[in-house]
Write a structure and sequence with these properties.
The protein has 129 residues and is mostly helical. Helices cover 81% and strands 0% of the residues. The protein is built from 4 helices and no strands. The longest helix is centred in the first third of the chain and has 40 residues. The chain starts with a helix and ends with a helix.
Length: 129
């Protein structure tokens, strides 16, 4: 009886560890293009403030999420909460990876004047075709 309990605990630990590893890889697959697009969209002179605020808000959400899940665990079994959270993360990762968005048309280093000039040149090229 004690041996069966120990084996089932080890099996659950291994399964949860593998799922967390997969989710961690999935989060990295989302974060890398997201941060890259932020670096393209946010003007260079604002990037330090933007990324500092992003890190601050992200750090602030961690204890808020832990508190919420702690309160939720009073009403539900923690295994179900982890399963539901895992499915929500998988769905989010899937939705973000299905339709990638290109931000190449945005260039953070451009001033308003350079942007207008570039757009006018592109418009001229289209007319010539």
């Amino acid at each position: 009886s004690e041996m069966c309990i120990r084996d089932s605990v080890n099996t659950v630990f291994i399964i949860v560890s593998v799922i967390k590893l997969i989710l961690g890889i999935g989060v990295s697959l989302v974060n890398i293009p997201l941060i890259s697009s932020f670096q393209t969209i946010v003007p260079v002179n604002m990037q330090s403030r933007f990324f500092a605020m992003l890190a601050f808000v992200g750090g602030l959400l961690i204890p808020l999420g832990e508190f919420s899940l702690g309160k939720l665990s009073d009403f539900m079994d923690s295994h179900f909460i982890l399963i539901i959270a895992g499915f929500i993360m998988l769905i989010t990762i899937y939705l973000l990876l299905v339709k990638p968005v290109s931000y190449t048309h945005l260039r953070a280093h451009e001033t308003g004047r350079n942007l207008v000039c570039r757009l006018l040149l592109e418009k001229k090229k289209k007319k010539k075709k």
